[in-house]
């Protein structure tokens, strides 16, 4: 079922009529009042759009601009330019194993996260920031209109740099622009495109597991040994995950690093990590050296339902750029000073009103 939010309805009415936002909301409020409050604002907005002759959904599938993508759509095609490539990560849950990758893609009307599953995930290895991608037969998922994602499965297609296709979007320095700096206590249970600066206070031993070299799925125990649920018996490839506890002064959070980010955090190569599987005591010194290290992590927060606590899935990690940190601190101080000034102004206005009265 295609879902269009209240804000999206208002945007489409403004786009089609040229009315101001205030004028559109006034029409909606009058409609709610006219119907004696027996309808939601969203329902009233649909009625107003219909009365103005506005078709809210032009197309439900096929080639679309990003701004016109709605929750629930299927068989969606877009052409966009890649702003970010977060690479491939392997996952394993109680119910399934596999691979997932994601991109941020932009056109002249907006940006959207593109999620690729299993065999499709390997496609991102050939994609660079700035490449044009043509996506076909994708479907739209998301918790709400602010968090829409375009998902690709084995029926979808992604064509890299299709001939004769162009998207006029600037993606220079886009990686840093897609992330919002937050503190741990500001994180929501499910939130994407966030970065946190914190200090490492605890490091756990890396966990190793075997995956299929063909598709990256976690191998399962079958009669005769480990096997891939898709490719059968294979020569297993080692994968690993590392859990770290970080503290930023507002709280602590578990950080989850998968293979590529483990290597980047530890400044190691793949063959170095395999040594720690055979001799975990060798990891102890490295673990102690990491304690107290400041890092900046970028990624997404998620709620661990088993423990009822937030975790942070790391998509990139780097040492702090202290020149940038100084700029962020200055920006925060200016913001706080502005808020304090506004509070004082409000208090003065209140005192003035009280004296007049």
What's the short version?
The protein is α+β, with helices and mostly antiparallel strands and 357 residues long. Helices cover 29% and strands 34% of the residues. It has helices at residues 6-17, 21-34, 41-51, 174-177, 259-266, 270-278, 282-290, 322-356; strands at 62-63, 76-92, 97-107, 110-117, 132-141, 149-152, 157-160, 180-181, 191-203, 207-211, 220-222, 225-227, 237-247, 252-258, 294-304, 309-318.
Topology:
Elements: H1 6-17, H2 21-34, H3 41-51, E1 62-63, E2 76-92, E3 97-107, E4 110-117, E5 132-141, E6 149-152, E7 157-160, H4 174-177, E8 180-181, E9 191-203, E10 207-211, E11 220-222, E12 225-227, E13 237-247, E14 252-258, H5 259-266, H6 270-278, H7 282-290, E15 294-304, E16 309-318, H8 322-356
Parallel strand pairs: 1-2, 4-6, 8-9, 14-16
Antiparallel strand pairs: 2-3, 2-5, 3-4, 5-6, 5-7, 9-13, 9-15, 10-13, 11-12, 13-14, 15-16
Helix pairs in contact: 1-3, 2-3
Number of helices: 8
Largest sheet: 5 strands, mixed, barrel
Binned, the helix content reads: 25-40%
| Shape label | globular
Radius of gyration: 25 Å
Instruction: Please tell me the total number of domains.
Output: 4
Order of helices and strands: HHHEEEEEEEHEEEEEEEHHHEEH
CA distance, first residue to last residue: 56 Å
Query: What's the CATH topology name of the largest domain?
Result: OB fold (Dihydrolipoamide Acetyltransferase, E2P)
At the first level of CATH, the class of the largest domain is Mainly Beta
How is the quaternary structure best described? single chain
**For the record, what is the CATH homologous superfamily label of the largest domain?**
Nucleic acid-binding proteins
Give the integer mean of the pLDDT values: 83
Structural class: alpha+beta
How large a portion of the residues is in β-strands, by DSSP E?
Answer: 25-35%
